[in-house]
Amino acid sequence: MKAYCSTMVLLGFCANTFSITAAASDTKTTHQQQFAATHYDNDNLQALHGQNALEKVNQLPGFTLVQSNQQRGLSAAGGNVLINGANTVSKSESLSDILRQLPSDQIAAIHLYSAGHPFSTASQFNQLVNIITHSPKLGAHWQVRSKLTSAYHAYRPSELAAQIALPSEGWQHQLNVHYQDDRSQSTSQFQEIDAFGSMIEQGHEAFFEKRNGRLLSLTSQPDLVDSRLVFSTKAVLDDFQTEQNRDNSSPFLWRLDESESRSEYEMAVDWQKESHHKNQWQIIALHNRKLEHIHSATFDHAAIATPYQQHKTQQEQVVQLNITLPNTAYSPEFGIEISRNQLDAATNNDGDFEQAQVSEVRYQPYAAISSEINQQWQLYTRLNTERTVLKSRAKQNHKAQLGFIKPLIRLSYDPQSNWDMTITAQYQVDQLDFDDFVQSQDAEFNRAQSGNLTLRPSQFTELATQLNVQLFDSLFFNLNLYHQWQKDIHEFIQLPNGDTMIGNAGAAQKLGGALSATWDTSKWLTGSQFNLSYDFAHARFDDPLTGSRPTDGITPHDASVEFRQDGSTYNWGLELYLPLTETNYYIDEIYTEKDQIELSAFAEYQLSKRLRVRGAVATLNTAKYSYVQHYFDVNRLGRYTGTRRIDERVDPVVTLSLLGQL
C-alpha cells in the first residue's frame, strides 16, 4: 500500500476511557513508591493547552508516545500512556485514537514518570504517563470534518463523529459513533530500463482509493467503592476500493481493481480492586474477532484479468491476572496471561486454491520486585516466562512447543535535580506475524509470497540506556540508545522448489537510538515551543547470497521538527518531516522507497465556549515519493537485469473541522 494512503482515525472510547473521581495534588514532583513523578494538575494542567488527552500528552516536555495494539495478547499491546493506572484494553483502536477521544474537561491530572514507574502492566517502558480522569457529566462531544482534495468531485463532509456521556443512577455509560468517507488520489510517472540502460517501458499511472468506515462502541462502568469494573463492546466496519491504471501507450492498460472489506467485533471486561493495605488485583478478559475479504483483478495489458481472492478469519481470547503488593518488602508483582489465537485463511490465486490455519496457545506467568538501593538509585527486576503451543497447517501440518525465559533488569538513577538516567538489560522474543504463515500477493509490484508453516519467532538480547535532561528551565530532551544481539531474524528466503517466503535467516546486530527534544520559546512568543524527534538505526546481517548488508526493512534515519503556539482560544503549528528511506531485500530484487521533505500546517480557533474550528493542510509543498526496483537473474547473486522506477506525486490535502460539545 502506498505511503500516502489515508489512515482512518477510529474515533471511539475503549475499555480504558472510563472515568473515576480523582484528587489531584498541587505538588510539582513526588516520589511515590520509589519512583519520581512530575504532576500536571490545576494551573499546570491548564498550561497544557488542547481539547483532548492526545494534544496535552504531546506537549509534555521530552516525552515520546509509544504505542502498539497490533500485538497478540495484552502484555505486549497498548503503549506508554495509562488511563487511571490501567492499559488500554482494545485491539481495534490505537492508543492515539483513544487519547484523541478523551476530552480535556474529563482530565483531572497527568503524571509523568521519566525514569521508572510503579505500574507492572507497562514494565517494558522506562518513560510513562498516567492520566487521571473525572467522572463525566451528561453531555456530548461531536466533530464534523471535511476534506478538499483532487479525489473529491465536490466539497463535502468526509467524517462525522460523536461521543456521548450518559451517567445514570449507579452507572457511567459512554457511547461513541463514527462515520468516515475518505478518498485518496495520486499520479505517477514510471519507466523501466534493461541492464544496458535501454528503455523498455514508460508511461504514467493514476491511483484512486476510497475508504468507508463505521464504528460503534459502548463502555459501561458501575459506581463502586475501592474497585473498578468496566464493560466494553465495539464494532468496526471498513470497506476499501482501489483503482490503479498504468498507460504505456499499448492497446490495453495495466489495471488493478481491488475491493477489501474488514469487520471487527470486540468485547472486554476489566476489574480492579484495591485493599486497605493498598494491595491491588486486576483481572482482564477480552474477546476479539476479525473478518477480512479481498477480491482483486489484475489486467496485465490484456483483456482478461488474473483474479485473486482471499478470506481471513482471526479470533483472539485473552485472560490476564495481575497482583501488586506495593507495601510489602521489595513491592512484589505477580501475574499470568493466557491467550488463544487462531487465523483461518482461504486463498484462490487464479485457480490455485489453498486453505491454511495457524493457532497459538500461550501461557505467560511473570514475577517482579523493586528495591530502593539508596535515595538516588532504584532497581527493578522482572522475570517473564512463556510457554507456547503453535500449530499450523496448509498442504502439510506442523506443531511446535516453544518455551522462553525473558529476564529484565532496570537500574534507575535520579539525583532529584535536572537530569536522570535509566539502564536496562533484557531478553525479548518477538511475536510471530500470522500473515507470514499464509500465502499473499502484491499485485502492484508483481510479487507473490508463500506461507511458512515452520517459522520461529525472532529473539534478541538488548542493553539500553535512557537519559532525561532539563537545561535552563526551557530545554528538555530525552535520549535513548540501545544495542541488540538478534537471532532467528526474519528475512526473505527461497526453498529448493522456488517458493519465496519469510523465514529464519540467522543472527544480526542492531544499534539504534531516539532523541526527543522540546525547547520552550515562550520567552519570545507566549505559549510557543519547538519539538524535535529523531530516530536512527543501523543493523548488519550476513546474507548468504551477497554477504554483509543491512537487515530488511530498516529505516536508517527518521526525523521531524514542529513549531507550535498554544493559547487559551487558539493554537497553530507547522511540522516538517525530513526525507525517509527504506530498503527491502527480496530474493531477486532490491526495492527502495524514498520520500522528500514534507511540510504540514494547522490552526485552531475557539469560536465560542462550546465550538471550535480547525483547519489543516497536509503535504503543503506537495508530497513526492519514489519506488525503485532493481532486478537480478534468479536471485541477488545473479546478474543485474534491469530497473523499474515509479515517481509519485500527491497534491496537498486541506481539511476543515468543526468541534463542539453539548
From TrEMBL:
Record has Signal as a keyword: yes
Signal peptide stretch: 1-24
Transmembrane intervals: none
Name assigned to this protein: TonB-dependent receptor-like beta-barrel domain-containing protein
An MF annotation (GO) of this entry: siderophore uptake transmembrane transporter activity
Keyword annotations from UniProtKB, A to Z: Signal
GO biological process: siderophore transmembrane transport
